[in-house]
Write a structure and sequence with these properties.
By secondary structure, the protein is an alpha+beta fold. It contains 9 helices and 6 strands. The chain has a 4-stranded antiparallel β-sheet with strand order 4-5-1-6.
Length: about 290
């Protein structure tokens, strides 16, 4: 008899989220310099390409790029993979934290960073040709005007429900509909496994990094994040466990038990305490080896 695998419905405990981001990359191909390099080395036309950075040492431009990077950091920290290069899975317990962080970053980008960048941009273009920046590589045609530049930037945050395995509203006949539902149910399970695999991998990386940092008997120097990163993953093991996975529950409880009261300061100062903590971490890595 074939076993029946029940696909958990997660539509009520999770959603899909996508952040569409557009920005000016600040690079341009220098055709003349490309041809000169190819000629200098006797190389063919497609052998090399000279791309130049258009804005160098400009803090306001760098700040915008940094904040865009923060959006990616929050997205990948607070969510799990679902579709390839598409929406990611956001659990209901993580929604308010995620939404608060993302909307805060977006507000800073749109209300502070971008207006300051746009206001200073003409001066940045004027400075770009100075000897400590692009010098003779400077070409004013590489720079869009301010109005065009603004069109290069946009951020859209989209939420959507996770469709249930049986949620097909197409007129294809009962036989085809059953096939579609079966196909999606299989896909649904595969995506859920992939999402959980991502959580396990992040937990494994945090514990493995902690184990490596705790090696040796000499006084160690490391940041407080050595402990806080693992604590964050313990919290995520709970908030990401939308199907009540027992192994994930046990891992959360075991990590909490093993690291209860552990602080980076104590680990830095006490060799025996550090080595005992490393032993506990290594035991956790071994205990959940199959889950990683």
């Amino acid at each position: 008899m074939n076993a029946i695998i029940e696909t958990p419905s997660i539509s009520s405990s999770a959603m899909l989220v996508e952040i569409n981001r557009r920005r000016w990359n600040g690079y341009a191909r220098n055709k003349d310099a490309t041809e000169q390099v190819q000629a200098q080395y006797g190389a063919g036309k497609k052998s090399a390409r000279v791309n130049q950075t258009l804005l160098i040492n400009e803090p306001l431009f760098d700040q915008v790029n940094t904040l865009y990077g923060c959006l990616s950091t929050v997205l990948y920290h607070c969510t799990m993979p679902w579709l390839d290069r598409g929406p990611r899975l956001l659990t209901t317990p993580m929604f308010f934290e995620f939404n608060k962080q993302v909307t805060g970053i977006v507000a800073e980008i749109e209300n502070v960073a971008l207006p300051a960048f746009f206001a200073e941009y003409p001066n940045m273009v004027a400075r770009a040709g100075s000897p400590d920046r692009l010098g003779a590589l400077y070409n004013p045609d590489h720079y869009p005007d301010v109005d065009d530049l603004k069109d290069h930037y946009s951020i859209t945050l989209k939420y959507a429900p996770v469709p249930d395995a049986g949620d097909f509203r197409v007129d294809v006949g009962q036989e085809a509909l059953a096939m579609l539902r079966s196909s999606y149910e299989s896909y649904y399970q595969d995506q859920l496994k992939s999402a959980y695999a991502d959580v396990w991998q992040r937990t494994h990386e945090a514990l493995t990094n902690m184990s490596k940092k705790l090696e040796g008997e000499k006084k160690q120097t490391f940041r407080d994040t050595l402990v806080s990163n693992v604590e964050d993953m313990v919290e995520l093991l709970d908030k990401f466990n939308i199907t009540g996975d027992e192994t994930m529950r046990r891992a959360k409880a075991r990590i909490e038990q093993a690291l209860r009261g552990v602080s980076a300061e104590a680990l830095r100062e006490d060799n025996s305490y550090r080595l005992d903590t490393k032993r506990k971490v290594d035991e956790l890595l071994k205990e959940f080896d199959g889950a990683w």
